Each structure stands twice: as structure tokens, then as C-alpha cells.
Amino acid sequence: MSYKILLTATLVAVVFTMGYYAESAVVFAQYMGNVGGDGETGKYTLEEALELQRRRIESAEVNPAAGSGTPVLSADGVAGAAIITAAVFGGISLAFFIKGRSGKYAAMGRG
Questions:
Q1: Which residue range forms the structural domain that includes residue 38?
Q2: What whole-number distance in Å separates Cα of residue 89 and Cα of residue 45?
């Protein structure tokens, strides 16, 4: 079987499968609260949301040592996740590099 035909058939199957499942994953706009029968919003209105954000800013200004709450240097933070990811993928690439230097298809005279 030709690879072009197989690739085309696979792509068509993927497109139809994604279209089939995409209907159930439609994203709707997020409301600030529950909408009542008269169109009013629920308890979490825009004014309440602004008040909550104002309180969060005041709390961060009162206690600056707490920071933003994002642990940057811990293992579950930004830098920690980057270091762990680099170590894992670096180890995998190192293993492929070492295995690629020897074996049946390695160029003669290179180890």
C-alpha cells in the first residue's frame, strides 16, 4: 500500500474523529454567577469580584514576604519543573546519543 494513501486515510480519520468529539467539548463564556430567570446575575457580581481582588492586593501589600504564592524554586514551581523536565529529556537524549554511536548502523571507524 502506498504511504501517501495510508497517510491521507489516517489524516481523514483523525479529522473526522476530532470533529465527532469536538461537539461535546464546546466552550461557553464563563458567567460571573448564576443567571436567574429575569436575567440578573447570581451572588458573584462584578462589584464583588473587584472587592475580592482589592482585598487580595491589600493582603499582599501587608505581608510582602508571602510573595505571589507561586513557588518558583521548589520542585512543584516554575524553575523546579523546568530543571526536572530538562533532566528527564536530557537523560533520554543522552541515552539515544550513546546508543546511536554503536550498533549495526553506526558508521565504520567511529567507535
A1: 1-69
A2: 46
